[in-house]
Design a protein that fits this description.
- The chain is mainly alpha-helical.
- About 60% of the residues lie in helices and about 0% in strands.
- The protein has helices at about 15-30, 50-65, 75-90, 95-105, 115-130, 135-145, 160-170, 175-190, 205-210, 215-220, 235-260.
- The radius of gyration is 19 Å and the shape is globular.
């Protein structure tokens, strides 16, 4: 099978239980409307203390990630926050916890830090300075520490807040913006757009995922086209389905144009 024809079989490498779970939920979620995203940066239903912490955190993250050129910039955070709040409303998750974790998740990203430990320390230092309550802090840091794709090696998150934030982040890696971010990141790290002689990596350790050779197009097969079957919540699955189809069509079109068709 050629690589250009392999796109439609990529999902078959996923585990059976995930595919069955997605299938079993498709009918039940297809007709359920998803609420629109709340107004950006408005949290009037929270206590004044939590509103203060959120306002400071919005400002902090904007300052830290504005102008970042790997596709993990402030506007990625903005999209993930808005999606997380939208999913939280639909799934009955805590808006404050979801928003804080979504805001801070790339402050800890090891791609933007010398190590994951250094990144998590930055998050903890910020939560210290804001005097975030212990229980809230534990939830926020657990989500951030365990939500990444990590080569597909991380276990599912146990809380609805974790599932929501992970879904919101993954939805920004499915669809039109995901395509743009893929090429932005490839250029950022010096990967080629495509090399037919460089095979797709079917199985990877976390280290191989982070540091092994790849291309922008290979990344679709190694991660992005697998995400639809790793979405946690019914609301997010509705959104992922259409975005996945759009992205799948794009990759197929890329191969056709590559061959001069």
């Amino acid at each position: 099978m050629t690589q250009s024809n392999s796109i439609h079989s990529t999902a078959s490498h996923e585990s059976d239980w995930i595919s069955q779970e997605v299938s079993s939920n498709a009918d039940s979620t297809a007709s359920t409307p998803i609420p629109p995203a709340p107004a950006a940066e408005v949290h009037s239903d929270l206590s004044q203390e939590k509103q203060r912490i959120l306002a400071n955190t919005y400002t902090f993250v904007k300052q830290e990630l504005s102008g970042e050129t790997s596709g993990h910039d402030w506007w990625h955070i903005h999209r993930v926050v808005q999606m997380a709040r939208r999913l939280a409303l639909a799934e009955g998750a805590d808006d404050y916890i979801c928003t804080m974790a979504a805001l801070l998740h790339d402050i800890a990203d090891e791609k933007l830090n010398p190590s994951k430990e250094v990144g998590m320390q930055r998050v903890n230092d910020w939560l210290d300075r804001q005097h975030v309550q212990t229980e809230d802090r534990e939830q926020i840091t657990y989500i951030i520490a365990n939500m990444s794709y990590n080569g597909g090696n991380n276990p599912p998150l146990p809380t609805i807040e974790g599932k929501v934030v992970q879904d919101a982040d993954r939805l920004d890696a499915i669809g039109a913006i995901a395509i743009a971010r893929t090429f932005v990141y490839a250029g950022h790290v010096g990967d080629m757009m495509y090399d037919p002689d460089l095979p797709v990596r079917e199985q990877m350790s976390a280290e191989e995922y982070r540091n092994g050779r790849s291309t922008a197009i290979n990344h679709f097969h190694e991660k992005l086209l697998k995400l639809k079957n790793r979405i946690n919540t019914p609301s997010a699955r509705q959104i992922a389905e259409e975005r996945h189809q759009y992205m799948e069509q794009y990759v197929q079109r890329f191969y056709e144009e590559w061959e001069g068709r």
